Amino acid sequence: MKDIEEKISVIIKACTDKKGFDVKILDISELSNVADYFIIVSGNTPNQVMAIADEIEDKMYLTNYDLLGKEGYREGNWILLDYGDIVVHV
After folding, report:
1. Fewer CB atoms inside 10 Å of the end CB: C or N, the chain?
2. Residue 23 and residue 68: Cα distance in Å, rounded?
3. pLDDT digits 0-9 by tens, 34-54
4. How many CB atoms lie within 10 A of CB 84?
5. In what side-by-side order are the strands of the sheet with 37-42?
């Protein structure tokens, strides 16, 4: 559990560092076998959405958490980052 708490903390810090807003952390462990947590964060522009996603990726990489998948980055309207037990929607 400590590992997942650290991951969530790293993700939230990365979001706030890039001025992400309306951050929601949803515990979906009882509802899904795909992930335990779903984190949603908003940005105002495609550039900000990309910056938030980049910051999450950078901070997670620096703490040795592997990104398993990424979708939607090219357009920048929404980006999905899959860290296995945590999925982040920017």
Report:
1. N
2. 22
3. 899 999 999 999 999 999 999
4. 15
5. 21-27, 37-42, 86-89, 80-82, 69-71
